[in-house]
Design a protein that fits this description.
single chain; mainly beta; 8-stranded antiparallel sheet; 8 strands; globular
């Protein structure tokens, strides 16, 4: 597999790159179903081919150069953080897309640096993964 430049791993909302992003992350979660019984002699045994609680968690942090995420987070209408237009794009053309909920947002400011932001998005339902060509 070819190496990729991290700067080409970008998060977009409505096909527009979220401004100021310096670091992006993806974690895919899922839990197997534990079906161990006394016959398993104390060893964990999982139900084959089944995961529950599957989710994708996307993170972004960087310099707060636009107010898009801040505006969504501070909006008093909870519906504003349920997003149907999020994509995470890889430099090799792979794309993760789907409905996401912004489950966290924060700003940090220090005397000698630009205003920083961080945000977390958790998938809402099944996502779509499209491999690049």
């Amino acid at each position: 597999m070819a190496k990729q430049a991290g700067r080409l791993f970008v998060l977009k909302k409505n096909n527009v790159t979220i401004g100021g992003g310096l670091e992006h992350g993806l974690t895919v979660n899922g839990e197997p179903i534990d079906v161990q019984s006394k016959e398993d002699l104390g060893f964990v045994t999982y139900l084959a081919d089944t995961l529950v609680g599957r989710s994708c968690v996307v993170t972004i942090s960087g310099l707060d150069s636009d107010k898009v995420l801040r505006g969504l987070a501070l909006d008093t209408d909870p519906a504003s953080v349920f997003l149907t237009d999020i994509t995470l794009e890889y430099g090799d053309g792979d794309v993760l897309s789907g409905d996401f909920v912004m489950t966290g947002f924060g700003n940090t400011g220090s005397n000698d640096a630009g205003l920083q932001f961080s945000a977390t998005f958790t998938s809402d339902g099944q996502w779509t993964y499209t491999p690049g060509v």
